[in-house]
């Protein structure tokens, strides 16, 4: 009469770092034990002050990441008003040209500085008359006509280049960008005056 030979399974615990997989002669680890080994300890903030500090650090890191993405020209990080092919076309069109309106802020700053210079009374009167009577009106007319022309031109070209796309606000968007000093434009210009791409920074 033959007797069945019973093999006793090895009930010793399986280490999480054990390179041998569960198999013949080794029990399959319980699901509860396996999940317990995968869990990583979570360090909770000790108090509200530490939680607020962690939140500010995460927000600062997110803002730095978003700014870096915008500086690279990655539209995923742009505000909604700057997204889309139509807005990109408007920016590139303005940035690739020298326009009268972009000198409005430097001209205004120059006038402000002139008023601080202690000229003699006679000279001060002549400077004031020249600036207010001649220079300022000419500059304002130049800005006005340039803004109207830029708005009309960009909207017209965008309609031809992007049929079916929404053109709402694109003319005003281009005119406002044309008023800004080039180095202060954001998103940063991708083209130089004349149409050449901006060389990558080393």
Description:
α3 packs across α5. The protein is mainly α and 202 residues long. 53% of the residues lie in helices and 0% in strands. It is flat and about 100 Å long.
Per-chain topology:
Blueprint (H helix, E strand, L loop, with lengths): L30 H8 L9 H25 L12 H11 L8 H13 L4 H41 L8 H10 L23
Helix pairs in contact: 3-5, 3-6, 4-5, 5-6
Task: Record keyword descriptors for this entry.
202 residues, mainly alpha, 6 helices, flat
What does the main sheet amount to? none
- Cα gyration radius (Å): 34 Å
Q: Give the beta-strand count.
A: 0
Provide the structure class.
mainly alpha
N- and C-termini, Cα separation: 87 Å
Would you summarize the structure shown here?
Helices cover 53% and strands 0% of the residues.
């Amino acid at each position: 009469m033959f007797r069945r030979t019973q093999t006793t399974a090895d009930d010793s615990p399986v280490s999480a770092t054990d390179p041998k997989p569960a198999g013949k002669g080794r029990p399959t680890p319980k699901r509860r034990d396996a999940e317990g080994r995968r869990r990583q300890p979570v360090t909770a903030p000790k108090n509200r002050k530490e939680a607020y500090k962690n939140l500010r650090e995460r927000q600062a890191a997110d803002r730095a990441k978003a700014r870096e993405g915008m500086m690279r020209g990655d539209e995923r990080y742009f505000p909604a008003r700057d997204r889309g092919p139509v807005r990109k076309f408007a920016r590139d069109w303005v940035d690739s040209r020298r326009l009268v309106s972009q000198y409005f802020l430097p001209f205004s700053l120059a006038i402000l500085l002139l008023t601080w210079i202690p000229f003699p009374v006679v000279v001060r009167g002549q400077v004031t008359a020249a600036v207010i009577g001649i220079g300022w009106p000419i500059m304002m007319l130049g800005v006005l006509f340039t803004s109207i022309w830029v708005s009309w031109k960009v909207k017209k070209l965008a309609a031809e280049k992007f049929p079916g796309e929404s053109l709402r606000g694109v003319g005003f968007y281009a005119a406002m960008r044309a008023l800004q000093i080039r180095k202060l434009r954001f998103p940063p210009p991708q083209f130089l005056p004349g149409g050449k791409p901006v060389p990558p920074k080393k």
